[in-house]
Amino acid sequence: VEIDLVKFCSELTEEMQLSDRNQHRINFIICSNCFGVSASSVRAYMDEKLLRHIFSNLLSNAIKYSPSDSAVQFRLTCENDYAISQIQDAGIGIPPQDQKLLFDPFHRAENVGNIPGTGLGLTIVKNSCSIHGGSISVDSEVGKGTTFTVILPLNYQSKIHE
Ligand code: ATP
Ligand code: MG
């Protein structure tokens, strides 16, 4: 289906902000020069269900693994028919030895302490990205924060129906 990716992401950001009892500042940032003059909407053929799996899990992790008064950045840009999104937090970070294993079911990093979780969110995210023809990567430093980068084609559905 055709969706407006900017609208989808900003509504999801608002939804996450409202449900966040710890009051992080969740900022949705569109890299407007990548979209030309109008960055207020981006038409894309994408699967909303998969997008929701991906971004709600990444945003809830960013919220869960960072201090309650810190900011979470959700950035969106487009390049060559791909949407590039980044979810960045200033949280606990992920030890290097855990970074390769994060997407395996039930794997949790050694520094989670008593923060609750089952270790399944990122497995769902990774699978959703690959079903959607995209990819995900992580960049993180313990004690500094974490950035997940997701690259997804803007024309997923149209490819399927061709
Ligand atoms: P749930 O299944 O409820 O999402 P979870 O959050 O533990 O549980 P994942 O979302 O799959 O599971 O994440 C796997 C692990 O990766 C986490 O347990 C945590 O160690 C680490 N992790 C994920 N996101 C972050 C983040 N933004 N900052 C720090 N660590 C993270
Ligand atoms: Mg999670």
TrEMBL record:
Domain of life: Bacteria
Lineage: Bacteria, Bacillati, Cyanobacteriota, Cyanophyceae, Gomontiellales
A GO MF label: phosphorelay sensor kinase activity
Name the UniProt record assigns to this protein: histidine kinase
Residues of the full protein shown: 563 to 724 of 724
Domain Histidine kinase: 1-156
Keywords of the record: Coiled coil, Kinase, Phosphoprotein, Transferase, Two-component regulatory system
